[in-house]
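Researcher: Here's the sequence for the chain we discussed earlier.
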Amino acid sequence: MKPLLLLLAVYSVCGAGRSAAQQAPAQTLLYTVPFKAGDEGARIYRIPALWWQPKRPLMAFAERRMEQRRMTGDVDIVLRRSLDHGQSWQAQQVIADLGHDTCGNPCVVEDATTHRLWLAFTRSRQADTEEQIVAAEVPGTQVWITHSDDEGATWAEPRDVSATCRKANWGWYGTGPGQGVFLRGGASRPDRLLIPAYHTESGVYRTHCLYSDDHGETWQLGADAADHSSEPQVIEMAPGKLLMNARTIAGHGTQRTLVISKDRGTTWEPAQGLAALPENGCQGCLYRCFRNGSNGQYDWIFSQPAATNRTSVTAWITSDNGQSWPAAQLLWAGPSAYTSMVRVQGGLVGMLIECGAKDVYEQIAFVKFAPEWLKARQAPAIKPPAPKP
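Model: Thanks. This is the structure I predict for it:
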């Protein structure tokens, strides 16, 4: 497989009136393609999740949709690992194949104490659609989980954790997608594994988290986080304090849903004092990225299509804990949608992007870039939302 090279032309996100001194230089970005429509007989690949830790393989997860473009029919969770930091990829592994049923929404997190890698996903019956499940015309989506103790080379038999991770009257369910969070414990509280998730109840989409305080042996359900929201991403703002950035359901707002937890994801409340991010009708990825050469300081990076028609995936960066988002860079100029990112070798950020030349789901590409590069271009002003009357 040959890497793809994309030369990003100098691109103005603020309009043509900016001076040349304000514009960032073009940068050659190296793309490789771990998943391409048609590979292994798949109709398309969707819903990326990415994971890496130092001296470990880089791991790219996705849904392999065998029959349809939509999330119904025969769908498996698959993995490709890279031993050279994304330059090439090993053969595809099947992590979850539950017959002809639909397995989806991969969400990965590593237990930093045991070094066990956990992957949560969902299961619904082959012929059931999301609309039918939301309307309670068919059984609700189940919650499943598996793990690996050998850096993703092999995986345990998946197990159903629905009994403790969903309510009986819930319909649709999604884990992540993307990444969970490991929260270090202490003398008075245990380590916690946290998986952001969402569900429907009486047709309303709501976000929540599921968590384990015993290193994955058992899993529990946290409180609802926000109405009319889905596909949440969670980062740790400070020890025990979390921020959830979630997709806002169409018709319920034009900004991303932001909520905060002060009890490690058990309960949630509206966020205060953070800049609003636009909702462009797509999953978005939020990642806390430690700065190169710093003493524990970090930036936040947010990625999403810059347009509502699922084109122009862009990465924004903030250095003031989300009070402003002053800089951004275009990562894919054409059709593009879901993303997942992680810090990789050499202080770079790696990202998986659903993208293509003509169709948004032609492939899932992998790209690396320096966080400092994002800061080289001014982004449109993002202001805090107006106070409610």
